[in-house]
Structure of FAD-binding PCMH-type domain-containing protein:
Amino acid sequence: MSWGWTFLFSILLSFPTAYSSTTKIFTNQGIDDFLECLAVNSDQYGKIEVYAPKDASYMKILQSAIRNDRFKSPETPKPLLIVTPRHESQVQATVSCSRKHGLQIRVRSGGHDFEGLSYTSSLLVPFVMIDLANLRAIDVDIEDNSAWVQAGATIGELYYRIAMESPIHGFPAGFVTTIGVGGHFSVGGYGAMMRKYGLAADNVVDARLVNVNGEILDRDTMGEDLFWAIRGGGASSFGVILAFKIKLVQVPPVLTVSKLTIKQGALEIIQRWQHIAIYEVPKELFIQVQISRTKFQRNLQSELQIMFLGRSEELMHIMEEKFPQLRIKKNDCMEMSWIESVLLFAEFPKTAPLDVLLNRTTERDIAFKVKSDFVTTPLSKREFRKIFNKFLEEKQFASVLSPWGGRMHEISDDEIAFPHRAGNMYVIAYTSLWSDEEGAQASQEHVKWVREMYNYMSPYVSKSPRAAYIGLRDLDLGFYKINTTPTYSEARIWGEKYFKGNFDKLVKVKSEVDPSNFFGDDQSIPPMTLQSES
């Protein structure tokens, strides 16, 4: 159910006397005032859709983009209200009215924040969730080699719209096609073309953002410092992203993809992969390693996932020269278009039509916990053997090693807020997966293993700081204490892991654009203006 203004205030009937699942009591009068504010500030653009916990549609909308079953439990803190804007002005109204009436906001574009921070909070404060799913227009301009894409669009929708306009244009972003543009681009966004073209954020040329005053800013009006921050620094600390303008990239009409299961000598091949995939092959070639195990497998499975922006004959020549240990054969190579490679990497069936990319939902119900590291020095075969043995302690997991090099090593650490450039060989993600049906005890055991795996990897990964990718959000790195003022010293613990030397500049930008920390969450950038410490 959604409300026109004639019926909007009947929403109050769905609340008890006060909303008190948080440390702050929020009364029906406060809700009344907030809704009246929304009505006054957005009425000229028609109905605004607002959902309350007792409404039949509330849970359906909330869970429509919860990608991690860890956050579907009844105990997970939930929004006081959900707003699903259909016009930019309704986002402005929600920001302005939330700030005026003491409500925090969470903003969800695709729901892939790995700790659920786009739709929940561990801070136990009342919040409104802005679900951007209705703001997903995409305007592709092939003549200008660019596109405007609204924040609620998924990268699958973006890839599809580009492919419908041109077979020789693409965009360098991630593999999971239900990821929302707003979050993905603002934290960096890496994928199979990053060695050639960099991150998604490296190819953002403009943006539209609602600031703390409810104003819409673009690159010119927000200034270069804020524009710098929202590319790799996580835009949710600074405002609500409405849209990004991106630079499209050239792709060949035919490229080559291969998925090779390593049946023998996995340790030797992966040890050698560290040198070849990062330093020795052209930037048009992406070779990613996935090590996994399901509960039905006794042993680990190691796979190389390859994409080459060229024909199979050239790939064969490169691999024979640089990586003869693989013994890659012609029938291992599949020639296809770029958009077909998107489907393959997203693990759609071979017979899937292209418009499956427009599907915003997933049929898989899975719970998971992810942690990340950057590797800066090559690991030995002996070290990999130890790591593999540790992997065998978990019955269902996936670890993905994604190679840097190429364009990723050419862009400076401070070109945008994303800092992980030259000096990094690859990013490694550790993921434990399980069914929520296994129960709470099993869930705790899986999370425990990921944490133990992370601790075990300490000698082998980056140091001072031990870096992490904010796109693989991890609250184990730290978060603000409940009912306290965020401090620089707290945030620095995880902030320097995510942003390294760029953290202080992000704090400076935050202090200028949001000094009262309205756009705050469990791991947001803190403003120095709130600090009482020296």
